[in-house]
Amino acid sequence: MAYAPIHFQQTPDQFSDHWAPNVIAELNHRQLKLVKMEGAFLWHARQDTDEVFIVLQGKMEIAFLDAHLLLREGELFMVPQAGEHKPVAAEEYHGRSRGS
Question: In terms of DSSP H, where are the helices of 23-93?
């Protein structure tokens, strides 16, 4: 097994597609993914797990049925299991998401 750290600031440069999560590690049978976002994603809810968003570069918004949340660089937010939400990034965003 190779022992090497994952560099969050360098990893997004290795892929270019928006809304195409890239698995960078697995933890307790859950995947850790990096994703580039630009524009709006679909309304959705994860029925089997919470979903974590960490903004590495840029900013993003998470729309909920009754509110909106703005996340900036260095901030984290966890959407609870079954919480309906819609990620939106007006400009390209690099972040990490943990989901199923």
Answer: none
pLDDT digits (tens, 9 = 90+) for 41-87: 999 999 998 999 988 888 999 999 999 999 999 899 999 999 999 99
Burial annotation 65-93 (CB, 10 A radius, 16+ → b, else e): eeeeeebeeeeeeebeeeeebebbbeeeb
Q: CA 100 to CA 98: how far, in whole Å?
A: 7
Sequence-distant (6+) residues with CB within 8 A of 61 are 68, 69, 70, 71, 87, 88, 89, 90
Q: How far apart are CA 17 and CA 35, in angstroms?
A: 8
Phi, psi of 14 (to 5 degrees): -85, -5
